């Protein structure tokens, strides 16, 4: 910018006189005139325009900031909603999987319970059959032991009846047959088996 604060315009040089030499020039001399100093006020007039531009820029930036804030908050809200929907879907799927697992487990438990009941019943039948066989065998053994004892007693007294010597009869009387031990388990006894488990 050219500084023209103190600039002045000098009087224009006089043109050669058209009058003849020796004749005085009676035209009035030109006065010096000053150029208006408009450039001196230019900074003062430019500052308000700069302030107005700054205010406009400030308002534009504030509006842009608010728009960006709203956009970011909207994105966060949408993302949170999407994540919540995804989480709810995953939870529902997990609940269905748990229900399906529980149904399968219940079927398996029911099947296993029925199988074990059948196995226990079969084991009971086997145990009762063995016990019956043992009891029958023991009855037979006792009856056989008693029959043998009865036969031995009969033979003992028959011998005494045939004997005529008192000393011999007294000696034989001290040899009375012993009663058999009927409480001895038979050879068919088996150790008890624990209940069937898996």
Report on the architecture of this protein:
By secondary structure, this protein is mainly α. It contains 2 helices and 2 strands; from the N terminus they run ββαα. It has a domain at 42-173. Helix content is 65%, strand content 2%. A two-stranded antiparallel sheet has the order 1-2. The chain is rod-shaped and about 220 Å long.
| Largest β-sheet summary | 2 strands, antiparallel
Q: Can you count the helices? A: 2
The proportion of residues in beta strands is under 5%
What is the H-and-E element order?
EEHH
Task: Give the N-to-C terminal Cα separation.
Answer: 107 Å
What is the CA-atom radius of gyration, in angstroms?
70 Å
Architecture blueprint of SSEs:
Blueprint: E1 8-9, E2 33-34, H1 42-162, H2 166-173
Q: Which characteristics define this entry?
A:
198 residues; mainly alpha; two-stranded antiparallel sheet; 2 helices; 65% helix; disordered C terminus
What is the structure about, briefly put?
The chain has 198 residues and is mainly α.
